Amino acid sequence: MSNIGVLHGPNLNLLKTREPSVYGVLTLSEINKLIVDAAEDTDEIKTFQSNSEGALIDKLHELKDWADGIIFNPAAYTHTSVALRDAISAINLPVVEVHLSNVHARESFRHGSMTAAVCIGQICGFGPNSYLLALKALKDYLRK
Fold first, then answer.
1. Options 8, 23, 77, 131, the catalytic residue
2. Catalytic option among 61, 77, 79, 99
3. Are strands 43-49 and 69-73 parallel, antiparallel or unpaired?
4. What's the pTM value of the predicted model, to 2 decimals?
5. Residue 141 a catalytic site member
6. What whole-number distance in Å separates Cα of residue 90 and Cα of residue 84?
7. 23 catalytic residue (yes or no)
């Protein structure tokens, strides 16, 4: 059994209405349902979204004692947050960084990630499937 945390960063609560040509037409609730449905019966998934950097850090700390691994879309904090990077490093859990859009094909300020270096990998550009690919990758990682 794997306990997997799924964290969503700022503005992801606006999915479907925020730039659907970039972020898709599913709501965050619909994406969370896809993740839960894709998880095996033996997996427990906890999802969380916040627009607050501090709340995301607190959730990472909280998940440290529950989760076997984390799927995390830090959204805009990817490019700016040393604090989130440090929190990921401090909890000593495997984390997969996820993005709905291909951040490397967008504005240059989105090309760098403060958090990727302390994650086991980064998946981006596949819309909601980025989360499903991350789930598979994390589960494979945990099995090894």
1. 23
2. 99
3. unpaired
4. 0.91
5. no
6. 10
7. yes
